[in-house]
Design brief:
single chain, Immunoglobulin-like, 21% strand, alpha+beta, five-stranded antiparallel β-sheet, four-stranded antiparallel β-sheet
Length: 470
């Protein structure tokens, strides 16, 4: 039942203020304790999240650096990247090549003869060939218009690389329209041909080896190879992406290259190696900065107090950083004794735990032994990236150390919430008990006061009668 708040009429006391003060005094220590615990737990949850984000960013950086050409010993450059782009693999050999492009690879595009706008085709099929590839069949419904034939082709040949569209001549609207077939396959011998299964559909027949002229069917462009010269040697490719012409390099021909000379150079990947190593160092240093911030104890200027990071004293953080630092300093057997630890590259640990690069030493290694750098960092068996990722994964993976840490902290928040509810109920009970006690006291004081006043009145009356008799 609701608490009855006394007004102190009997005693003259402010019962509500007294009870409120007593309840607040009783409640304050526990409330303050729970507030501190909640604040600390929230900070720890945030700290775990910051650490996990930094570790995952570090893992992502290592994964990207290790999976691509970031640590290739050689790099390919083009004197005119707008004409030819080039990439080198690990099997490339240093050298310079003069490329002259005479024509680009192109795909087949053919046109049917003009078809009257009122034409309705008989049911049947179209057989569409692409050079010596197996022909494709498209079924055509009875009474289909030219637009409906186009739609059937595109729907049934989706993903084949062959598409069709309707083209009309606005200057001569009475001649009708034609179908234009296009292919994405480049290279000599990839010409489109079309044949119909009946007289009606044979109106759409095209011989892809005959040039289109006037209103007749034929090719608009023929499929052809790219033709180019490397240092004067005539070569060809079915596609504009040329692989295998020069061992270890792939280059892409663009329209701007036709008739132009372009120089491709394969040389030490100095810039790429520097950038890759710097990215690794920066990502690692961010992890160190985050952990330092989360575990640092800061003394007040006057020395009277100290404040700590969200994860001060957390043993799992110390274990993580000890493990990571151990991998940084463990020698790697790459088959080349010249680079076995980071210090051989001029990368050393500073007093605050971050890494710093001795650029002069690194530059010398890149010039002398660039092929060793990739094996040290990105070796698939015992490269630094793999060993570091193996150690960090136990912290960042689902159900890992940091996930368990977060779950435990969330459990603490749940416990705090339960304790608050229990404390609130206890304080409500205390308040009710105090009101009952003070209301009873107030009532008793009121009764005693009333009795006292009655006795005083009787005595006064008795005194007055005695005086009158005298």
């Amino acid at each position: 039942m609701p608490t009855i708040i006394g007004n102190g009429l009997g005693s003259g006391l402010d019962i509500e203020a007294i009870v409120t003060s007593l309840v607040n005094a009783q409640s304050a220590p526990k409330t303050a304790q729970l507030d501190r615990l909640r604040s600390q737990t929230d900070a720890r949850i945030s700290g775990v999240g910051q650490l996990r984000s930094a570790l995952e960013a570090f893992q992502t950086a290592m994964r990207e650096l290790g999976s691509g050409s970031a640590f290739s010993a050689l790099a390919a450059t083009s004197s005119h990247a707008e004409r030819i782009t080039v990439n080198a693999s690990d099997s490339a050999v240093a050298g310079s090549y003069q490329i002259k492009v005479n024509q680009l690879a192109s795909s087949s595009r053919v046109a049917t003869a003009y078809i009257g706008s009122e034409t309705a085709f008989s049911a049947g099929s179209l057989t569409i060939g692409l050079g010596t590839d197996d022909p494709l069949t498209v079924n055509i419904a009875e009474g289909a218009s030219l637009v409906e034939v186009r739609d059937a082709i595109n729907a049934q040949l989706g993903g084949s690389g062959i598409t069709a569209n309707v083209v009309s001549d606005p200057g001569n609207p009475n001649v009708g329209s034609r179908l234009i077939f296009s292919s994405t396959a480049t290279g000599q011998g990839k010409d489109i041909s079309v044949a119909g299964s009946n007289a009606s559909l044979s109106q759409l027949a095209v011989d892809g080896s005959v040039q289109q002229s006037g209103g007749a069917a034929g090719y608009i462009t023929r499929a052809q190879n790219a033709e180019f010269e490397i240092d004067g040697l005539a070569l060809s490719s079915a596609t504009n992406r040329v692989e295998g012409a020069v061992s270890g390099i792939t280059f892409e021909l663009r329209a701007e290259a036709v008739g132009q000379d372009t120089t491709l150079t394969i040389g030490p990947n100095a810039s790429g190696l520097n950038e890759s190593i710097q990215r690794f160092v920066d990502s690692y240093n961010q992890v160190v900065r985050v952990t330092n911030s989360l575990t640092r104890v800061t003394q007040a200027a006057d020395g009277s107090s100290a404040s700590g990071g969200a994860l001060v004293g957390d043993a799992s953080i110390r274990q993580l950083m000890n493990t990571v630092r151990r991998e940084l300093t463990s020698p790697v057997d790459t088959g080349n004794d010249s680079i076995r630890i980071l210090a051989d590259l001029g990368i050393r640990t500073q007093s605050n735990g971050t890494l710093a690069i001795d650029q002069a030493q690194l530059t010398a290694v890149i010039q002398d032994r660039p092929e060793s750098i990739g094996a040290f960092f990105a070796g698939t068996d015992n490269g630094l990236f793999k060993r570091m990722d193996d150690q960090i994964r136990s912290y960042t993976q689902a159900g890992g150390i940091l996930s368990e840490r977060s779950d435990s902290l969330q459990g603490t928040l749940t416990s705090i919430s339960r304790q608050r509810d229990a404390h609130a109920r206890a304080m409500t009970s205390l308040e009710a008990r105090l009101y009952a006690q003070y209301n009873a006291m107030d009532s008793l004081v009121g009764q005693l006061t009333s009795t006292g006043n009655s006795l005083l009145a009787s005595l006064d009356a008795l005194t007055a009668r005695t005086s009158s008799r005298s």
